[in-house]
Amino acid sequence: MQTVRWLFHLLLVRPLVLLVLGVNVRHAERLPESGPAIIIANHNNHLDTLVLMTLFPMYQMLSLRAAAADDYFLSNRLLAWVALNMFGIIPVKRGDWRRRDGDPLAGCSRALNRGEILIIYPEGTRGEAERMTEFKPGFAHLARRHPDVPVVPVFLHGLGKILPKGAIVPVPFICDVFIGSPMCWNGDRQEFTRELHNRISSLAREENIPIWV
Amino acid sequence: MLHNLTPTVTYTLLGIVALLVASSLMVSLIVRLNPDVDFDELKLRTRTWWVMVTVMLLATVTGKVVSLVFLGFVSYLALKEYLSLIPTRRSDRAILIFAYAAIPMQTYLAATGKADFLPIFVPLYVLLFMSTTMVLKSPTHGFLHAAGTVSFGMMLTLFGLGFVSSLIILPDSVNPIGGATGLVVYLVFLVQFNDVVQYVAGKAVGRHRLIPSVSPNKTWEGLVCGFLTTVTLALLLAPLLTPFGRAEALIAGALIAVGGFAGDATVSAIKRDVGVGDTGNLLPGHGGVLDRVDSLIFAAPLFYYYVHRLYF
Staple partner for B157: which of A120, B65, B78, B206, CB 3.0–4.6 Å? Predict the structure, then answer.
């Protein structure tokens, strides 16, 4: 199945993302060359994960994971199969992370212990396209448990234009990816969350992006 | 023999490959002789030329339908780069689908030989339909800007480049020596070579900037060197690829050099207006596809109608 995933990305996802859509990456050198690492990015739609996985060389493909809400992605069998086998998602329970029925971040922790690169969308949901909302605390708890793992902020732009919530037909646009400087756990959850939110927001201001209203 | 290539066209294509080999050797020699100078862009450009020439040769020798589909794909990439550069309205999102849908329609018209209809398809039907839909579906506020920018992009990437399709589907009888393919190779090679000479001469001996507010790389020296080289090559290649006599070759070369410069400068002005350096990054060292084909945008229709005027 791992080979199928590798080929699926090589033959389908990469040509789709790189040729049919197109990606313009700024500061690609800031991407981690090896795991473990946490990538946090703003979330527009499902294309985000396709684009983020395309940023890494093919030999790293099988160590790329994405934390995804189990209530959505495991809701039907086909979606669950694709998400688990083709994108290597780690199902996470949404809601209060302190709830009693087991540790919701255990799967993510294990992935980092295995040296994998984990994609997290701290907004917790796709929300409205091209608008960034507040961050949920999950990724900060994870960073606290793994204080040596770098957290790389990434700003994605343009994917909401391709496929806004509710739209069926995608319209091709070249999307922009801005990679920020990585940072490790700094000891304070609120401070850490605020700093990474700031880093992503300042990436958004780095260039004159055409407005979309 | 490969798909309807006359011997002279085959020799010319082989000559282009030889030219590429020679320039790659020269680039590596220059790089070796000047170890302190940074030639990364030059090396990258040369490497990308290999990819582009390989793809273009394959698209040329495998038959007209493949050439037309390839050209449609180039139009698609260029249009996508253009629409990503300009500000667009959320309300026009669905209308942009029609802009993309026009590409396979135009390719179909070319593949079925609708030579008369091809040039009016975009300016008449597509733009009329799109602006009317915009009037009906989108707010009036920002209409002129949206309709204007989208139409202009369609004219550049579909209408302008579409004249290469018009050349591809010319009857081979127009040009016994090279066929339609000969004319296409003549146009594309001269346009691209004109670009390279303008760029290299501008870097090597360029002193006087031509349009400093648009592009720092365009110089009078580059323009003149490009023009003279292109006209000379147009004269030399005409007997191999075209039915042109000397006077016709001279005029065709001049049209290609001037049209090439105009297209290039126009796309530079668009980039300067929206504040970006390149239209994309698909072609390392060159920028985007639109950066590479910009000089064909005006040169192709000028050249096509010149041929049309002479032989129809």
Answer: B78
